[in-house]
Amino acid sequence: MIRAFVALGSNLGDRESTLRAAIGRLRALPDTEVKAVSNFRNTEPMGVVDQPRFLNGAVELETGLGPRALLDALLELERAFGRDRLSAAPQGPRTLDLDLLLYGDAVIEEPGLLVPHPRLHERPFVLEPLADLDPELEVPGRGRVEVLLAELDSNR
Length: 156
Fold this sequence. Notes:
Blueprint: E1 2-10, H1 15-27, E2 32-37, E3 41-43, E4 54-63, H2 67-80, E5 97-103, E6 108-110, E7 113-115, H3 124-133, E8 138-139, E9 143-144, H4 145-154
Helix pairs in contact: 3-4
């Protein structure tokens, strides 16, 4: 079993219900257990700022799924909640956003699969929920979550 972390986000519809339903669906994935869920945070959008606020969080999983299989399951879950990544504007509004942040201590660079998530160290709405789950968590090539978050805070 591998320890993996997934970011959750939503800014359309009943955001909290969507995130809680998505967590329920994550619990139903084969060979996967949801170990912990962060607090949710109401956050400003980044990039495209003319859109509703997001509700963001993260989950810690233990999974026997490989990284590609886990990513495929996350993308299918997004589609089940009405997200169409192909036709939607990048960084635009979305019913559900699931990002594979970490997969054990693996560094993966494959088409469509980058782990650790390439921008997680720049995003407080990702680092804060990760700190809820494990502030001493190591992000391969970047350092501990609590240190990354402190660096972001000092630059704001």
